[in-house]
Amino acid sequence: MAKDPVCGMYVDENKTPFKVEKGGIIYYFCSQSCLDTFLKPEKELSHLKKMTLFALTIGAIVAFLEYVYPINYIFPNYFWLFILATPVQFIAGWRFYIGTRDAIIARQANMDSLIAIGTTAAWLYSTIYTFQTLEWIPQIFPKTSTGISEVYFTESGLIIGFILLGKTMEHTVKGKASESIRKLLELQPKMARVIENNVEKEVPAEEVKVDDIVVVRPGERVPVDGIVVEGYSSVDQSIVTGESFPVDKKVGDEVICASINKTGVLKIRATKVGSDTSLAQIVKMVEEAIVSKAPLQRLADVVSSYFVPLVIALAVASFLFWYTIGGLPFGLSLTIMISVLVIACPCALGIATPSAIMIGASKGAQYGVLIKGGEYLEKAHKVNVIVFDKTGTLTKGKPSVTDVIALDSENESIILEYAALAERVSEHPLGQAIIEAAKERGINLQYPESFEAVPGKGVIALYNGNEILLGNRKLILDHNISIDCIEELLKRLEDEGKTVVILAFNKKLLGILAIADTLKDHAYEAISAIKKMGIEVVMLTGDNRRTAEAIAKRLGIEQIYAEVLPADKVKVIEDLKNQGHVVVMVGDGINDAPALAAADIGIAIGSGTDIAKETGGIVLVKDDIRDVVVGIELSKATVRKIKQNLFWAFFYNIMLIPIAAGLLYPFFNILLNPVFAAIAMASSSITVVSNSLLLNSYKPSFLEKF
Description:
Layout: E1 2-3, E2 10-11, E3 19-22, E4 25-28, H1 32-39, H2 41-68, H3 77-92, H4 94-105, H5 111-131, H6 153-185, E5 191-196, E6 199-204, E7 213-216, E8 225-230, E9 233-236, H7 238-241, E10 247-249, E11 254-255, E12 260-261, E13 266-272, H8 278-292, H9 299-325, H10 330-344, H11 349-366, E14 369-371, E15 385-389, H12 390-394, E16 395-406, H13 412-422, H14 429-440, E17 450-454, E18 458-463, E19 466-471, H15 473-478, H16 487-495, E20 499-505, E21 508-519, H17 523-532, E22 536-540, H18 545-555, E23 559-561, H19 566-578, E24 583-587, H20 593-598, E25 601-605, H21 610-615, E26 618-620, H22 627-660, H23 665-668, H24 675-693
Parallel strand pairs: 15-22, 15-24, 22-23, 24-25, 25-26
Antiparallel strand pairs: 1-2, 3-4, 5-6, 5-7, 7-13, 8-11, 8-13, 9-10, 9-12, 14-26, 16-21, 17-18, 18-19, 19-20, 20-21
Helix pairs in contact: 1-2, 2-3, 2-6, 3-5, 3-6, 4-5, 5-6, 5-9, 5-10, 6-11, 9-10, 10-22, 11-22, 11-24, 13-14, 22-24
């Protein structure tokens, strides 16, 4: 069984005629309405908002006239209610009739069927009752003397309004996700420079062919996946791989579409273009994962498949029984049938999920946690594995100087001053980290007399006639300077996942600087709190294993997946789920988006990319990963409220179905007048709203520990 990507209902691929192929993926829908929403989401959302406002506004006016201030100007009050409620029933509610028609075509009941039948029964009964007040209309339904309104146009209108409100909220979230996927595609350059017959020519990126030679200048994005055939540069490919630092690229190295060329000019032979590039594959994986994500199994979805036919059969059977066997008049028998249909349609269903989500989301915002929808919360109470991306999630995602070690009698400030001077005109990210550290210490930065960047090794600078070397082992050894005395120190720093640069002044070793991607504030507290909740913590990163192990050791994380590309991240998530785990993925980058979508619950860091935030079901606004704990706990509380609300949405109604069908008549001569369906509906709505409001008093107990 496939799932409708719009409403989340299960769809039989062999029965439904509503399907479309997009990007090589076949999507199946329960109705034409859902298909139209998928194909034209902006137009559908705009229409849905207008219909929601229309239904709720008119519904509120009808409620005021029916229960608070009846008017009898020109026409009796019931006629005014009919005039106002009818457009809501057949304009705002038309989509439910279309959905019912489509359900019949697809040979399966859906939620629209339940709404259409229930609201039509309410409207039809009220309409007949209204017009039978005229003297020349036969009395089909008996009048009551309860003193309560004998029609319920209000209920039929507000059922439609509230359910449209829920649909509007869901479509808004899905629309944002689609918008972010489009933004992701926009990261690929529109144009590319291709060399043809030794002439550089600018062409649209989609026209680049495999084996074309593409030129990429500093500051530009790479338009294709390819291999460097000429040049040397530092390339920031964190957008795809999640690596902390830009990677040096030389002839023979692979480069990735949408990565940013930082320094030198590169000539690249295209190996993957168009829809085959890494970026395009990430987009495809995100779309597939979103569609395949199991939505919250709302009670309404289960009910619509079995409950609708059962209720219709029971209503018809009740009518036939009392009219043919029970000997009741036609009017009373018809009243019983309509009572069953109306009682079976729980008006609170439309607000059961949205009310809990709105209040839970509002409460979450107070803690810096944005919860975007009930479908992301289904398994929150069962979560037993949380997978963290490293770069930008557990760490700050930018290089910082962590150690400045002076050799002999020199002091740290001198070491940092000479190092910053050597890197003063460098554009390399490690050099920028050194310059930033010098500025933070208030060191006055000078410019070198000359500067030379040695690819893959470091820099050579001249200052007041003195030679300054700053780089790795290769650079120092190339100048015949022994490093035996510091080898043990270098190894210790490298084992901690740090990048080490050595400073030499006129052939003499002066000091060592260590640079690393540092932990975010409170990262250790967050991991400790999660482990105390009995949840397993896993780190997943595209960075090298040595760096990953160093970070994991400092955080107390035992399970690590390093050097993992986006497609492999999804595989890790799927493997964990296949092992029976309920998995949360926490990340911040575009490279995390497929994994966020594939996980049972995706949690995106607020400082991250749009695609990560929109793919994740929970967003941490404050960029504080301690809020992961808050998000899980608040999700559990919210989903509990949703389930409670769904129970109360049906409780009154289901309890009254036997009474509506005439169960008490043989014993107490009592028949349930349809007017009491309104009381049941109102009671369930009040209960649902009140229950949701209890979330306002919720406070996670563990927040006090922070």
